[in-house]
Automatic annotation (TrEMBL):
Domain SMODS and SLOG-associating 2TM effector: 9-171
Name by which UniProt lists this protein: SLATT domain-containing protein
Organism: Paradevosia shaoguanensis
Stored InterPro entries: SLATT_4
NCBIfam families membership: SLATT_4
Domain of life from the UniProt record: Bacteria
């Protein structure tokens, strides 16, 4: 079968699409990891603050030297955690990754649409659209926060093993009205089709 479009162009667009899928998922994982880390630090901060307060009350009531030393140590740990949270705003970092993922999602969907439309487009129109998407992507990459290897490995696992980006026909049908469902067939029209 002879294709009406340049297969090399399609290959390049498919490659770009794949990279955007991975980058999008990696930023989602980074956002989740930052949020989890922030929550752990916040819980730790609450526990350490409670321990410091309890120790301070205990020192006043019992006048034990070991309790004074323990309270001072816990107080320093509380100071360390508070300083860390002040200097490294994990909540803002998580939001930056969510924002980057949201913008990348749009580019990802545009690449998917381009792949879908490719057979109907003339080569010049396809090249122009590809170039527009690459320009958009370059601007996004320039302003996006850095990701790490851990988030990439998690994204890879979700995409390859957990199939985060794939749906069965039945899963998609659950969200569609009857006239658009594929499983079970489409309803027949009055014209006998």
């Amino acid at each position: 079968m002879q294709l009406d479009y340049d297969i090399t162009l399609e290959d390049q667009i498919r490659e770009c699409f794949g990279r955007v899928v991975y980058t999008h998922k990696t930023h989602e994982r980074m956002a989740d990891n930052c949020t989890k880390k922030l929550n752990r630090f916040k819980v730790g901060q609450i526990v350490l603050t409670a321990a410091t307060s309890t120790g301070a009350v205990g020192v006043v009531v019992t006048n034990e030297t070991w309790l004074e030393v323990a309270t001072v140590l816990v107080s320093f740990l509380t100071l360390f955690v508070t300083t860390y949270l002040k200097n490294f705003d994990l909540g803002a970092t998580a939001q930056k990754h969510r924002d980057a993922a949201a913008k990348l999602w749009n580019v990802r969907e545009c690449y998917l649409s381009l792949l879908t439309d490719l057979p109907a487009l003339d080569r010049q129109a396809a090249v122009e659209r590809r170039d527009e998407l690459q320009t958009m992507l370059a601007a996004l990459y320039q302003s996006a926060p850095q990701t790490d290897g851990k988030a990439y490995v998690e994204a890879q696992k979700r995409l390859q093993k957990m199939e985060d980006m794939t749906f069965s026909a039945d899963e998609i049908d659950c969200f569609l009205p009857l006239s658009l469902k594929r499983s079970g067939g489409r309803p027949k029209t009055d014209e006998g089709t």
